[in-house]
Specification:
There is one protein chain. The chain has about 350 residues and is α/β, with parallel strands linked by helices. The chain is about 50% helix and about 15% strand. It contains 16 helices and 9 strands. The protein has an 8-stranded parallel β-barrel, surrounded by 8 helices. Helix 3 packs antiparallel against helix 13 and helix 6 packs parallel to helix 8. The longest helix has 23 residues. The termini are far apart. The N terminus is likely disordered. The chain binds flavin mononucleotide (FMN).
């Protein structure tokens, strides 16, 4: 490989480039495999959430203490068709790192193609979605449907691992339904096909987001695999993070809904995991953070889309505070950034 590249251009520059690539690649592998994790502090992941974990929100979560963030899911088929919006979803900037790009689909060729395309954005890993329960996704054989099709799941993981030289991670559920709990089977297939990490959301597809995530199935996966296992489901604060850790002995923790309207949950969890004091964010710091999120969204998506998309975030931020209903109503009626800034500056966090 070195000879091939040297003959196509300037010797020194290209040798340097190869070295850079290999150092970057080593970093990705060691971060994902947690080679540095000698002190047993679990890695804190921000979960992929479609319609939520855009670049602005991912940046806030990283600043608040998430170690690794995951993009919204990107359709492999759409990437194959050259869909610009899908490329946009996967796009990463330096300030978004370390980030994983998640892809979904059920055609090994499309998945391998999409994974390859997405590596151009320099993610630390490509994640394969095997957990999405949404009918539009699982109804087409994608997402959680793959839990029902272990052979195809293996083929997809194999195709993606073979296509790229960055780590491949796989996110699964406990199973399809309570009669078909097969997380261990699918996780073993993932490991055998070269996955670097498996994340287990301790609910079945049929459960969706209802009920409590099963810690036992996550523990079973952890006890069976040699590669790191990330635990996911109902981690919403320091206490639930410790509970998950104690019950599963997992290598990492992934937080989803607990971060909606409170990216600072990562600060709390990180402090608890590191046995350090946690100083809650002041109302002023919270308002500042929302204003920065708005700014980043406007720069990234344009004012019109940003104003629309931040509405749901603000609704989550103000949940439970006095006057939440009237603030929400005025946010939904606001069509200018200036007016929205005024509203945010007046949010009366407790
Ligand atoms: C709004 C929303 C969007 C989600 N989108 C994705 C997604 O794109 N890919 C994925 O693997 N999981 C997705 N999930 C599932 C979460 O990543 C996570 O597995 C689940 O919410 C359980 O974790 P939690 O209890 O911490 O929320 C989504 C969840 C929510 C609430």
């Amino acid at each position: 490989m070195i000879i091939l590249i040297i003959t196509t251009g300037s010797k020194f520059i290209l040798i340097k480039k190869i070295k850079n690539i290999s150092i970057a690649s080593q970093y990705k592998w060691s971060l994902i495999r947690m080679d540095f994790k000698k002190d047993k502090t679990p890695i804190l992941y921000m979960a992929p959430m479609a319609g939520v974990t855009d670049r602005a929100f991912r940046r806030l979560c990283l600043e608040c203490g998430a170690k690794i963030v995951v993009t919204e899911m990107v359709s492999a088929k759409a990437v194959q068709y050259g869909d610009k919006k899908s490329y946009e979803l996967g796009k990463l900037f330096e300030s978004d790192q370390p980030a994983i790009i998640q892809i979904f689909g059920s055609d090994p060729i499309a998945m391998a193609f999409a994974a390859k395309e997405m590596t151009a954005f320099n993610p630390i890993a490509i994640d394969i979605n095997m957990g999405c329960p949404v009918p539009k996704v699982s109804g087409s054989g994608d997402g959680a449907s793959l839990m029902k099709n272990p052979r195809l799941a293996g083929e997809i993981i194999n195709a993606v691992v073979s296509a790229i030289d960055v780590p491949v991670t796989v996110k699964i559920r406990s199973g399809w339904d309570s009669k078909n709990i097969n997380a261990v089977e699918i996780a073993l297939i993932a490991e055998a096909n070269g996955a670097a990490v498996v994340t287990v959301h301790g609910r079945t597809k049929v459960q969706g987001y209802e009920g409590y995530a099963d810690r036992n199935v996550i523990k079973e996966v952890k006890q069976t695999l040699k590669i790191p296992v990330i635990a996911n489901g109902d981690i919403v604060d320091g206490a639930s993070a410790i509970d998950m850790l104690e019950k599963t002995d997992c290598d990492g923790l992934m937080v989803g809904r607990g971060a909606l309207g409170s990216p600072w949950v990562f600060t709390e969890i990180k402090a608890v995991l590191e046995n350090k004091p946690y100083i809650p964010y002041s109302p002023g710091q919270k308002r500042e953070m929302i204003l920065r999120q708005l700014d980043m969204m406007v720069i990234d998506k344009g004012e019109q889309l940003a104003l629309l998309e931040i509405r749901k975030h603000i609704a989550w931020y103000i949940k439970g505070i006095p006057n939440a209903a009237s603030i929400r109503a005025s946010v939904f009626l606001t069509h200018t950034k200036e007016k929205l800034i005024e509203i945010i500056k007046n949010i009366d966090f407790l």
